Batch of 3 targets.
Target 1
Amino acid sequence: MVVVSMAAAAAPATASAVSAAPSAPQLATSTTTALELPRRHGVPGGVVAIALGASPTRPEARAHGVPLLVLGDPQGWTALVGIALSAKPGTGAIEVQRAGKPAARLTYKIRSQQYAEQRLTVAPRTVDLSQEDLARYERERTHLAQVITTFTDRLPTALRMQQPTPGPRSSSFGLRRVFNGQARNPHSGMDIAAATGTPVIAPAAGRVIDTGDYFFNGRTVWIDHGAGLLTMLCHLSAIDVKPGDEVATGQRVGAVGATGRVTGAHLHWSISLNRAMVDPALFLRDDETANK
């Protein structure tokens, strides 16, 4: 059975991007221990790390006006940038503000990426929404658009995460689905096949910022890991946390289900970095990747 989720300055300078390596580098922060960076993949839906150089205090960095996660120490700072799935191949840019200095514009390359396409024939009601359902979706979309803007000053305690529930990945990130000939937005998360009731855990420590039962996503938990790094866990059969709860890595937050617009039980896991949905596989710990 195919399980389907329907959830949806100053003069320019060239950035020095931190290159990927077989053993991912660790980056110290001024308030936390060294963090292992996510895998870098400079494509739509990927992540790039841009070296900002030395500065006595943490620089501020933004992409399209959105604040970025900046890590490091006075000897060297790095900005992590999530690249939206809608981004076009070419050149991306960030604005960097260092204390007492003019703003600087740094650029990075966005490479092309060909994601898979899946064509499905489903019941018309699962594609064409009634007026009532459409009105509900629009209300929820406005609310969730606000949730994803969350940016807190605290830094993540980890950038490599645990898979939030055991099971095979039943759908790839970036997959573009065509329902009854109608194209939909690319799949913006990782689907993990698991039975209803299977525990779902926090992939990293953070604070619960939203829970709800949404039209497409079903029962959902959002966790803020700090500085614009968020995770979303969807289609749950149960929610065991509430907004404001602090959760530890590995703590149960709910259970796998089939709520929302889906054809079978599974977990949909999304990661948002600076409001861009990025591939969760880039954030998985090496031992989790080996158990794909």
Target 2
Amino acid sequence: MKLTILIICSLFAMSVVAVTPVTVKLPSINSADDLRHQYSQQLQKLILSSSGSDVKIEWVTFPNEQQHLSLLDNRAVDVFASATDKEVEKKYHAIRYPIFRGLMGYRLVLVRKDNRDILANVKGIDDLRKFTVGQGSQWQETKIFSESGFVVNTSRHYDRLFEMLSKKRFDLFPRSVLEIWNEEQIFSKRDIVIEPHVVLHYPMSLFYFVRKDHDELIQILENGFKVAINNGSFDALFEKHHADFIERAKLDKRTLIEIPNPFSPAISSQETPLYINL
């Protein structure tokens, strides 16, 4: 009898373990004007649901200025999307599937409405350096522009950067071809527009990062990406969110200006097919 009870209890314990979901804490934004993370959050849900694992998502809300990879250090979140560089990949584990397929490196430029044609005669990077640039103080882009000799004015606050542009604290606010259209609409009240003449480009990949010791989650995310890529759902979600933005940019009618990114890790041949070159 005791043996029977012991076996039943053991089977019950095993069943509890088997059905206990893995809780994954993901960051959320509490800004009504910041739409940048909608696609990434939907992609995270797709990847986790495609992984074949039982996963419970817990959204953790932070102000924009607190959104940083260091949230992984104190386990405030388990996954964080960020532009990569060589130092970041030494500290954290990169899930090396490019979230935005390399297109975050294609940048159009927000300017003040009265400066709409400020870049009409710009032909290369030397011409571009005559103008001051605004960027987030913790963004990888700040290092990229500074390394290339630009004067960069920064703020920790995302919304504040649009105010700084409007108040002439800097001349140019380069934004991704995938982000800029919503931003122009949201901040149009500040007389901010997209200038029509140039497109900047530098190598930039955004990956999901996790702690290096989080082996279970690393495997879950790897599995989820493989499934979503193979069944086409990754492509479908990307197209749903971004195809119109890419078309509207009309990059073939703009002057392309290349900016070096010495901080970017090399892209492997296995990863290359996931990138889009415009």
Target 3
Amino acid sequence: MIHPGERLPNIVGSDQAGQPFMLYHFSCGSVGAIWLAENTPSTDDVMQALDNVPAHARVLLVTPGPLQAPEDDRIGVIADDGTLRSQLMDGDSGDLWIAFDEHLRVTRRGPSVPDAWTTRWNADDSQASIVQSVAPVLTLPRILDAEICDALIEAHASAPDLDPASEPFNPFGPVARGRRETVLDDQALTRQINQVVGKRLLPEIAFAFAYGVQAFERIRITSHDSAEEGGYSAHRINLIPDNRHRAFALIASLNDDYEGGEIVFPEFGPQRFRVPAGGVLVYSGSLAQQMLPVTSGVRYDMVSYLFQEPVQQAAQQPGQQPAPQGGQQPPPNMPPANWS
């Protein structure tokens, strides 16, 4: 069963004309839905459903029997012997609509056509800007739920400041202002975050960067206060030997009630990056990155560093987990089911 926030698998089969079908080709950046029909609908039923589907959306109809599908670019039809239905419905009966966003991540599940087709982009591509340079970063909304964000902020408020002695000496670190950093030591919350990140984020990193994350450093929580113009200077996170394993950095935003504090990658231009609360920003550890001053409120983030190869024991930091050995093993504290 696929839950909201998780990426759909690439459904592969043959359409009603016997031609090869792939969901990842059919969608190609469109929002859409999978319509799992318990019984084969009539052509009129399909046309009525399409009345509620915008032109920029796509619907994959999975039906148990043959259907004369209407000539409409919005719909694709494949027959199913019950295997796909059992995998996606988890024993439910009746019709099921599974809506997905441009990243093929599930946004909702329900028995009827979605009443709202959410999109991150303006469907009118005439308003799109021409980009000459942009940082190669991944931004995704809806990774952490609001309850997790609130719990992390609460944990940060009561935790002691990070002891600088627990970190390797780094003469190339950022110059920080108005910054407070703590380490998450709540094991139950850590396990919950591990499961969410494993299901919702790591498949997206593999999809965007062709990189299989196998481990990550301890979870840090940071705050940058506008009272001190909180932020930090441009720097790279993997310049010293103890940090060279850091293939990617993960910044998850925990709140929206602040201004300023955008992330900038100066090597690629002046674009300012900001994701909504619960969203994440993932970027290569080799990129120069800075945070502009927070001008109002306090910005809270969850931060960690992701990697693949085992870290030499002498270089491990407290709380750091070595990568498991062999094949498609899950990272520390990550159940194998999260990596299917």
